[in-house]
Specification:
- The protein is α+β, with helices and mostly antiparallel strands and about 230 residues long.
- The protein has two domains: about 110 residues, no CATH class; about 110 residues, no CATH class.
- About 40% of the residues lie in helices and about 20% in strands.
- The chain is built from ten helices and seven strands.
- The strands form two sheets. It has a five-stranded antiparallel beta sheet, covered by helices on one side.
- β2 and β3 form a beta hairpin.
- The longest helix has 20 residues.
- The radius of gyration is 18 Å and the shape is globular.
- It starts with a helix and ends in a 7-residue tail after the last helix.
């Protein structure tokens, strides 16, 4: 399977650790780019938050990966529950096509205890509404901390100790104003990792990115890229 090859090559896990996944197709109005990511889940951490990893994949691989996600999820449920997979999983309810804020996703197979997926690749357990009454998915503080620290550790940045109420309030404001903010946040980290100016700075970090609507756009637009 292509997914198994990706897991072995790109993660520290094995195909047997797989518990679910989804394919995220996101667009950015700031960079005019389309990004395809395979999001894989590998069980839960000590606080019962899903362990996930994101891997960029090619657009041409989407049909194969989507089919393989379904097969692996059915096999996982079959092994987990010990009954025929077709009795466990209704394919129509398993695959959800969702359009929200410029993001299409095929959801994987979360356990019964999982909450609804956010646009970002972290499971949400809070739902806020903006002034237009459209549903906005807000991840928990714990999930934000886990995903942020996992990504910054990959590029050698200092991890956060906690997500304070003040930080969380600013993050929710950013998400309510830009439903793609969580995607943009992780994209900004990837861009930052390639910028010697940012990596040498003391100002770049979570607090700076959520402080206002403009800072993250500056990163996405390449204002700090190496010349």
């Amino acid at each position: 399977m292509l997914i198994d090859k990706i897991i072995l090559a790109k993660t520290k896990y094995t195909p047997e650790d797989f518990t679910g996944g989804n394919i995220q197709v996101s667009t950015s109005k700031y960079t005019l780019q389309l990004t395809v990511k395979l999001i894989l889940y590998f069980g839960y951490n000590a606080t019962r938050n899903p362990i996930s990893t994101q891997i960029k994949v090619q657009e041409k691989d989407i049909p194969v990966l989507a089919e393989e996600l379904i097969i692996k999820a059915k096999n996982y449920l079959d092994a987990l529950r010990g009954v025929d997979a077709d009795e466990v999983l209704d394919l129509n309810s398993f695959v959800t096509n969702r359009y929200e804020g410029g993001t299409n996703s095929l959801r994987g197979a979360p356990r019964d205890s999982d909450s609804v997926d956010s646009v970002d690749r972290v499971d949400s357990d809070r739902v806020d509404r903006d002034t237009t009454s459209s549903v906005v998915y807000i991840p928990s503080k714990e999930n934000v901390l886990s995903v942020w620290n996992e990504n910054v550790s990959n590029i050698g940045m200092t991890k956060l100790r906690n997500i304070s109420d003040a930080r969380y309030k600013k993050l929710k404001t950013r998400i309510n104003r830009n439903h793609n903010f969580l995607d943009n946040l992780l994209e900004a980290l990837e861009i930052a990792a390639a910028s010697s100016f940012i990596m040498k700075s003391s100002w770049f970090g979570f607090d700076w990115l959520v402080a206002n609507d403009d800072n993250i756009i500056k990163v996405l637009e390449g204002n700090y890229n190496d010349k």
